[in-house]
């Protein structure tokens, strides 16, 4: 069979046999560790806690209550079955009118009701995964490239480039300015690409950002729009975390930005989904909203490859058109996310670990640079392995998001219950405390002291930087309290 | 340098074809028994609307499946979060069992070899992404489902080369046709990666004979290429001969350990057999673990909604239900097909003898003014606009002989079918009378009509194109 297998391999496409799906990266190691030993409060309290999955599990009770109160939203219940056959037959790629209306209303609401979205421009896709790929198929040809500010969602490599044949050109953002996307960085990346004969067709951003958990400010947004407009390239805004904003500043959709800007609207495209905002990734609801008619029409034809199940469209149409429910849901969700975020970030602060100041997303961007043996990706991966295998937390290393600075980790906080949160914090506390204890032991202490010297040097640099830029890491920087830097010998 | 990709501006999505034009016309003037009795009757939609009552009655007896409950417990949260591309295990098990049942349990399927996709549309495209790329071609017997042009070629860059089948032998696949197609691909500098067949056939409504299947196995063995068997109509076989799946043939010929085993792939769906096209349930079944692995990853771009997987896992696990459903559904399909065939007969129209599918392959060659595709288009326009029946012209299915039409029978009530047959009969009678008196005017009129016909058929109707099989 071996010979046959190899022979048969030649008969498959390049796409089927190459690695551009990205699943052979170390990123997935953490997953394996979790899968083989998953935490359970009673059945496996020593297991690995999953903090690498950006899921929103905080508001299911609200949805379940709504479902109980609205049995006619299901085409399978006695109350809703009279719609069964019409819906079961419905495969029109325009999508159910009520579904599109509900989604358009939600998108408008999430954008602070400053923009009205047109239900007739709503195009379905197989989750945001399908939406991003479809948009790429519409905007670029094999060999073309898109600029992507780093750090960025790990699976963009697959979604944007695997079957499409596109290339990603990262635009490195730095912690020195809170990873903001600068015009300078964009211009540089663009010029560099031109010099290498790479045909850049556009820029894609996630706003709010994954993995940073931050929203883009108006100035940055305007600068982006102006940049792509000047170069006549596309701007794709992945706004799937828009409703996970739980504090100020508010979320500003690109749709709002272009309302008061002179810009070629044919270049602007939005990707949306219900997987994060509503916590329904299993329902595969992806949306392409393009201001370009050709793209909209093409994406609509392509949606045949990933339509949303009509059963699901029907259910969600009812839910999203219940404006009272939606309003209440969004408010409650923000509240709970804020609370959870606060518990974690404050808890970490007390241990001496800082995080990037954020107000959105289902995760925070944790700064573990002080704990690295050296500022390299290898050291980051080493630390990560320790966190997975010893601390037993599956967090995601910054390198998997193509972050140009080692030492950052994305930690998800909305996919577990309150008790698990405490267990996770306790484990981190212990880990950091252990480091402190080893600090006192003989043989190792020299090593640690050396470390601390290096660390205290780098932390003080950070501290200085924090004085210079007001919106730095966290105004409550734990540096003075961190046990890792206390010993100064 | 174009602003958009080539895919946006090319025509490979195939939606400018006449096939979708009839749709347009139907949409503008749809028949309704009460509200619009003179409207166009839709006979171009291969949907199974005959057995919803069976599904609805199952739903009434199984309220848990409807309300995200299992054994009294709510599993809403688990389902809402479930996006594992390996699919819901209970659903996959139920699905493979169902597939087996349809094949008389002569073959069994392994859940490890099945990949769930958003409809057969996605399954076919995904399989093509795995097996072919630009410069490659798949051979397909004509006539074939018009949507294949989009599903197999559009975003993958692969090509289709036809295996020409003709009425001389009931459109069966012959060895010479296979060879000729292969040579044609070579002439076009295309590398042949495989053959794709639809069995039971769309648009023919026939099941493949064992001879044809053996021929295919020998051919792909010899050429060392793939075979995709799109078996989405497998559950619609309503009379003999019995359906023979390609898997059954491989098993009978003891080819499980052969080289060819891993090059045979099956596509399935619940859109036709269960009449649930809206739910987007498709599947790829492959004996090649590399294909399964790659297709599984690709399914991320079009997973089946977990809500739907859950509902259907409960439904298909109910073996009492599936047995009753398949049996009743077959009877109803057979009865309805018979009504269409006899109705056509009364109008002096014959069709290819068929035992499956949701349509018949109708022979209207004798109604053509000439043995040309222009004449076919002429006839088709008259049937759509004058007779007010939307049927699908053979040319849209890449048939090489003018005069054949696909007519669906399972997507309307019995009364509507009756009415459609009456209209057709009247039309045929009128042609027979008129043909004699208008012979002289034909040549001049044809010239003008052709201009009109060509303009219409090449016009693209971008705003209301739709899905169909």
UniProtKB/TrEMBL annotation, chain A:
CDD domains for this protein: AAT_like (cd00609)
Pfam families: Aminotran_1_2
Domain Aminotransferase class I/classII large stretches: 49-428
Superkingdom in the source lineage: Eukaryota
Secretion signal, residue range per the UniProt entry: none
Keywords carried by this UniProt record: Pyridoxal phosphate
InterPro entries: Aminotransferase_I/II_large, Ethylene_sulfur-biosynth, NHTrfase_class1_PyrdxlP-BS, PyrdxlP-dep_Trfase, PyrdxlP-dep_Trfase_major, PyrdxlP-dep_Trfase_small
UniProt KW Ligase keyword: no
Alphabetized PANTHER family for the sequence: 1-AMINOCYCLOPROPANE-1-CARBOXYLATE SYNTHASE-LIKE PROTEIN 1, BIFUNCTIONAL ASPARTATE AMINOTRANSFERASE AND GLUTAMATE/ASPARTATE-PREPHENATE AMINOTRANSFERASE-RELATED
Stated family: Belongs to the class-I pyridoxal-phosphate-dependent aminotransferase family.
Name of protein: Aminotransferase class I/classII large domain-containing protein
Native source organism of the sequence: Hibiscus sabdariffa
From TrEMBL, chain B:
Catalytic reaction equation(s): S-adenosyl-L-methionine = 1-aminocyclopropane-1-carboxylate + S-methyl-5'-thioadenosine + H(+)
Record's keyword annotation contains Lyase: yes
Pathway note: Alkene biosynthesis; ethylene biosynthesis via S-adenosyl-L-methionine; ethylene from S-adenosyl-L-methionine: step 1/2
Domain of life, source organism: Eukaryota
All residue ranges annotated as the Aminotransferase class I/classII large domain in the record: 41-424
CDD domains recorded: AAT_like
Transmembrane spans: none
Keywords: Ethylene biosynthesis, Fruit ripening, Lyase, Pyridoxal phosphate, S-adenosyl-L-methionine
Matches recorded under PROSITE patterns: AA_TRANSFER_CLASS_1
EC number: 4.4.1.14
Necessary cofactors: pyridoxal 5'-phosphate
InterPro entries: Aminotransferase_I/II_large, Ethylene_sulfur-biosynth, NHTrfase_class1_PyrdxlP-BS, PyrdxlP-dep_Trfase, PyrdxlP-dep_Trfase_major, PyrdxlP-dep_Trfase_small
PANTHER family reported in the protein's UniProt record: 1-AMINOCYCLOPROPANE-1-CARBOXYLATE SYNTHASE 9, BIFUNCTIONAL ASPARTATE AMINOTRANSFERASE AND GLUTAMATE/ASPARTATE-PREPHENATE AMINOTRANSFERASE-RELATED
Family of this protein: Belongs to the class-I pyridoxal-phosphate-dependent aminotransferase family.
Protein name per its UniProtKB record: 1-aminocyclopropane-1-carboxylate synthase
Record organism: Hibiscus sabdariffa
Lineage, opening ranks: Eukaryota, Viridiplantae, Streptophyta, Embryophyta, Tracheophyta
